[in-house]
Amino acid sequence: MKKIFCLILFVSLQLANAQGNTQLKVTESAVFKDEISVDMGVLAIHTTSSGKTGLIRANKKNFLVDVFDKQLNKLTSKVIESDKKESFDGYVSYGDEIKYITVMSPSKRERIVYCNTFNIENNTHAKKQLFTADVEKGGLFTGRNKRGTNVAISPNGKYIAIATDNIKKNLNSYKVHVFDSETLALVFEKSYQEDADNYFEPNDLFVDDNATVYPLGKLFLKGKSEKKEGDANYEFILNKISKDNYKSLKISLEEELFISSLAINYYENKLNLVGFYSNERAGNIKGGCNFEINTASLSVSSKKNTVLPKDVYDDLYGDAKAERHDKKKKELNSFYVDYIIRDNNGNTFLLAEEFYITTTYVATGMNGGGYWTTNYHYDDILILKFDKTGAINWGRSIFKRASSPSYNAFLKDDKLHVILNSGKNLTEKKDGRTKVSKGWFESSALYDFTYSVNGEVEYNKIQDNKGNNYYLPFYGTFNNDLFIMMSDGMRKKQFMLLE
What we know:
The chain is mostly beta strands. The protein has a domain at 1-30 and 407-499. The protein is built from three helices and 41 strands. The longest helix has 17 residues, at 2-18. It is globular. The chain starts with a helix and ends with a strand.
């Protein structure tokens, strides 16, 4: 018994020693007070080149826009009135501005789309109607997923694209509007993927410097279910839409392989599609895939797929089980792409989180009654690094359990930083895994998981949360080599800066 206790103590000390302090410089802003109570989290945040930060939040009746200086002291605050029938539906940021899209629903079928321009440097706010739409079936943005695929801005900041559903009683149709980002004048609008039977689900949206729009998504073969007896019931389609032309391209691997998910990665005038694939069933992950697209001819120049590295299984399952899973090339499932990060050497980092929903019946004990609760699971994180040829350089994962979106990621000095909250001390399992979760009676801590260029990880603690602010990495932003996140709380808040 004594030997077992000593072994546990040794493992705990070893893990505690591994949990060093972050290599990043950590500072906190002065406390600031909100002008109104805010029901929602951060809707948009952006830092200008001069160091000013703009923040947009909301409650049921108003939008709250704030400006902070370089040290994140609050400079100004404005309350922007909104209507209870008006909803926030995405944003883009460029230069000194945040432009956020709101949609008014005056009636069951009518939709009015607005662009709200918040200039951080000048502390001005303007609102302009962009277009109106009739909705016969579903909503205006019913196809979007959790990444937000309905609005995009070109790399040069000149054009804004908005993709909407245009589904009618006897026709499935989809539409893009492109606007000049400065004047908000309409450049063009065009429908695409018009079909009486097939639905199109957008997965990502990109607009280039010439106002050409690329909606990427799944075209369903029958109905809206992703699977038919385990087989994929969809094809991935990349659309190319300009003022005068429209083309589409089917994206596929070998016949026996399913593409689980894809996202657009644009870098140095090159368009790539990166994501996951399976050879068992739709939605599973056996490895990563990369497609290089010739945008002039709208064709696939090259494609590559690579199985998941063993380190991914080691992190998720532990030593013995990982060996079996790697040997069998066991597939993962329910992962959704959150971040695509590119370094200066042509490498691409893809981060995805396991997300699924369960329901639980809670018995009240009164006459056999009870009720059902819905549980959201934001669990393991998958990290893949693709080299400039499209092959996987390394892969890791984080064995995690959470009930809400909980992490963020950024690249600094060639190191990948994953910022998240966990229990005060990370749990070292007997099988070699490090579990990121918080026990019932355990206090929490904020961590920086730092990955080297070769995928080696350091678990660096930023702070113990007990007695300190509880910060929300998911709502943070990385601009100008600086990561900023805001604390939780009601009216009084602070920022934490990592640089």
